[in-house]
Design brief:
The chain has 81 residues and is mostly helical. It contains 3 helices and no strands.
Length: 81
């Protein structure tokens, strides 16, 4: 669990760096976006056959998932896309 939070924080931070504009969130939101990005990447990867059951998503796929979730988060919160 602690490892997921640490990796989520790193992935979320990279996603924020790759996405231009201001974000309405702090460290906790960044970590949650990173964790959600990893989950999104794993679910999508399982659906199209990239990953086997119980295999976690790769780091790059997690960053891409976090960027996608950050875009959704910004759209919902009304921030810049």
């Amino acid at each position: 669990m602690i490892w997921a939070v640490i990796v989520g924080l790193i992935v979320g931070s990279i996603a924020k760096l790759l996405t231009p504009g201001r974000d309405p969130g702090g460290c906790i939101v960044t970590s949650l976006l990173g964790i959600a990005g990893g989950v999104l990447a794993a679910v999508f990867g399982h659906a199209i056959g990239w990953y086997r059951p119980h295999q976690p998503a790769g780091f790059i796929a997690s960053v891409i998932g976090a960027v996608a979730i950050l875009g959704i988060y910004r759209a919902v919160k009304g921030g810049p896309l």
